[in-house]
Amino acid sequence: MDDRRDEHAPSPLHWRTRLIASAPEMRGEFHSLAPAVHRGSTVVFNRLSEAVDDWQQAERYTYGLYGTPTTLELGKRIAELDGAYHCFVTPGGQAALALVSLAYCRGGSHVLIPESAYGPTTELGEDLLAGLGIEVERYDPMIAEGIAALIRPATTLIWCESPGSITMEIQDVPAIAAAARARGVAVALDNTYAAGVLFDAFAHGVDVSVQALTKYVGGHSDLLLGSVSVAHETAYACVGRAHRLIGMAVSPDDCALAIRGLQTLGVRLAHLERSTLTVARWLRERPEVAAVLHPALPDCPGHAIWSRDFTGSASVFSIVLADGWTADRTARFVDGLRLFRIGFSWGGVTSLVMAYPDSSRLGARRERLVRLNVGLEEPADLIEDLRRALDQA
Ligand SMILES: *Cc1c(COP(=O)(O)O)cnc(C)c1O
User: 51-98, pLDDT tens digit by residue?
Assistant: First the structure.
């Protein structure tokens, strides 16, 4: 059987060869509403002269790493949403942050990162970037135009993240961007909270806008992807080179899921905003809660800037429990929740909770600060869950 040729087959090729050489057959055009998933590493050409290895070619495909129809479609749709010149898709949000830092920094560069930044961003700076001879300086997220005093001749990049991770400070991004532009320094924003829609990064002067698509665009806690949107050709050339050299491969299957997520982003964000405000306002009235750090509520540092610059709020916020709450009591509260599941990340359909008793960055509040992500459950049930857990703690 193994080496027998099939005498009746129309093709003179061995069946083992035919298993490999058959091209997918198209019966005319296939118009589906769902995005096609094109998997592929190798892209084949009709003749050698077409095999041009140039990542900047918009019309042609060269190699799966530099884009398949599915991965490029996701990038195009995020770019449209962000109002970007171009968007690069990355394997995750952290990969997107690392890509931008590596694209903009060389040995001897100085980078400014807000104290409220996503933890692994800061760790990347203080570990790998420092090891490359890049100096990372942390700054007060509420610094606004005061950033000008920290800019040095060697400064190549200023990071912003608004609201900040866990502590939720809203930054005056336009003031920081104006100071940076006056000195010719690029500004990159982690715009994950805004999902590319609640804060218009480019209208506020940012050069590069990053998202963890893992959060709102994916929206269902089942994929990891990131995006780097650039405002102009200069940023495109800078980030594009690094994107190619680092080999930021993304899965077309994940990209197709993210495209599906984009279709429901509008209704999810609108619903999550309402539910989250209902839960946050209820918590604000509770005697066990000293502060609710939600951008749309006045306890949040930079609330006035949020009112000026954002078009809405999202599903993640933090609470500071009352004076005297110990780490043990906070843990009893977190462990007592049933609908709010204990887990990192946010932006999906499930309500989540996390505490950070060991985070030195939170200072004296670290034993009493709890971050919540509201999902698509009924707010009344979530409030009952919180009421019971607070009472029992
Ligand atoms: C989750 C998150 C990231 C990292 O995204 P991953 O896709 O998990 O790598 C980056 N920035 C912020 C603000 C995040 O919340």
Answer: 887 776 667 899 999 999 999 999 999 999 999 999 999 999 999 999
Concatenating the DSSP letter of every residue in 81-114 gives HHT-SEEEEESSHHHHHHHHHHHH--TT-EEEEE
Burial of 39 (0-12, 13-18, 19+ CB in 10 A): exposed
Tell whether the model's pLDDT for residue 387 goes beyond 60.
yes
Report the pLDDT value the prediction gives residue 54, as an integer from 0 to 100.
74
When mean pLDDT is compared across 97-111, 252-266, 358-372, the lowest value belongs to 358-372
Write the residue with the smallest CA distance to atom 10 of ligand 1: 93
Is it the case that residue 174 has pLDDT exceeding 90? yes
Residue of 287, 384, 286 whose CA lies nearest to 336: 384
Pairing of β 86-90 and β 289-293: unpaired
Mean residue pLDDT of the chain comes to 94
- Phi and psi at residue 213, to the nearest 5°: -65, -15
How far does residue 64's CA lie from ligand 1's centre (Å)?
25
Question: Any idea what the Cα angle at residue 210 is, between residues 144 and 129, rounded to 5°?
Answer: 80
- What's the predicted TM-score (pTM) here? 0.94
Coil vs helix vs strand at 208:
strand
Whether residue 254 has its Cβ less than 6 Å from ligand 1: no
Q: Ligand 1 pocket, 190 CB below 6 A?
A: yes
Crossing angle of helices 252-284/69-82, nearest 10°?
A: 30
| 17 — pLDDT class (breaks 50, 70, 90) | confident
Degrees to nearest 5, angle at CA 246 with 240 and 250: 85
C-alpha distances out from residue 249 to 21, 96, 124, 359, 387, Å: 26, 12, 20, 32, 45
Say if residues 251 and 287 touch (Cβ distance below 8 Å).
no
Atom of ligand 1 nearest to the CA of 97: 10
Give the separation between CA 352 and CA 375, rounded to whole angstroms. 8
Q: Which atom of ligand 1 is nearest to the CA of 344?
A: 1
